[in-house]
Amino acid sequence: MHQPHRTTRVLSCLRHSSTFARLLAAAMILTLALPAVPTAAQSLNTPLLTDPGLNSNSQPLLPFLQNTLDRWMQENAALVIGVQADGVMPDEGDGMLAIYQTVFVSSQVRQRIDVSALSTAIDSGTVAAFAMGRVNASFDGAVGGVAVTAYDASEVALAVLAPTYTFDGDNATWQPAASVLMLPVGTRYVEHEFQFSNANLPPIETAYGDRAGLMLSHRVLAALVHLNAQTMLEATASGYRMIQADLGLDAASTCTWSGTFDESGWSSSISGVIHGQPFTLDYSGSSEELPSDEFEVSFAAEGFRGVAPITIEGTATYQKDPVTNLYVSMQYDDQGSLGDDGGPVPRFNWLRSAAEGLAGGIVGGVVGGLIGGFMGAGQGAVLGIATGILLSEAAFHSARGMEPDPPTPPDIPDILGWAETDRTISANQLLTIVGGDGSMTANLENVVYLEGTWAEGTATGTGFTDAPTSGGSIDSLRVAKGNGSEIDLSWLPSCASSDDDFSVYEGSLGSLPTYDHGAVVCSTGGAIDISVAPAADSSYYLVTPGDTMIEGSYGRDGSGAERPQGAGACAVQVPTACP
Length: 579
Prior knowledge:
By secondary structure, the chain is mainly beta. The protein is 9% helix and 42% strand.
């Protein structure tokens, strides 16, 4: 998606126009004001807006100058339903705002919320308002954004933040807009507002707004401190997980961990027992802001499992959106080695790559160095404000005694929706949270967990490995000639009822009896047949059953021994004997 550019000249005009409108509104509020009634049960980190999607079940838009709480009020805008004549369609639900041009007057849509129920937290001076939305237009040059304003008990404006964006003119893309405002002591009302500048809105054109959000949350950490804390948590969880990748997940494994972090780097230590052997890992990470407007964190770790040495090194590079000044994605890479129990000879080497979308977006210094709310660029809905959540779509390759082939970095995954923060994540994903309540958690593939607390640059916690399901084996693998040069493979379902997917491996007959099979496909989608293009050399094929996190048996050779797991295996192997 084309990134819009910052437009400081129009920002000035828009703020002046908006200020004028507010002064006019203030004069009329004297006669229109309604009694201030706090909204129903409010708490930090919960959505505050009524009808944030501006859908067909919305209450009618009221005149902009009417002082009514919990309702959308408009100036030169309308609620429209479905696809419009210019091809723009709602980003969420069936409705959206349509913003029209009128001379010398900004087009605005606002909703004011009574937050006096949260006065104790607000008056501590640590609460921020996170306002967000999506904007769109079918022509280049439209200017607008999302503003947030804090009012006192008499509804006098105490502070306002109104950044603007220039739209890209692609009506198929909705661009994120966000504002993060530290609430002054005495704030009792907070207002979300879509603003559009008519100076850049031709009379025959229309701009749009949708998917609004407003939430209050404690400030968590300065942005760069948070990035180091986030990397510390992720790297520590990843190392704990990868040590078990070759050994097999150990449901009896538990650990303790601790760390320190600031703007320049971090350190952490983790220790526990895996399959009856003690393990320790000590990490050290350092960070720097790059000229490319990225933030890079480099780290390394050393430790042991029993007498087997462990070494890890890696980087996490965070990318910032130059318009919103938010860190919106991260590329994570690490490589490691687990030595043999009898000495330093590598038993297991790995390379891991992950492309990650950041939600609960991390806001840069221009808007206060806070953790803020953000809708990942084109990737999904608003998520978990002020929690700093990462979703990592990871790929890793492993090998015994040699360096594995590097995995192809995956695409940035979709970010979870607002109401999905407690959703079980899928295989190969990592969910990490640095919460405003002083909590830290990491969930890697629903099998490895870290839990802890942080305060003033330090963190401590515990971890454990969940009991994985186990995979069975398949029978009656058949090969038949397919279309053209392809061959058709088919097999019977797994002997384990929990297996609902299959992986297919191919190896060279010339390698036998030592085996060299590698993955052809890691998922058949549950199908028990597949067509493949065979390698030029004579090949053999193996099919493993499993689910999204584990795979079962590769079958047994002529001597009755289990065949080895394939290079670059699709999942952790947890086989079970079937009747």
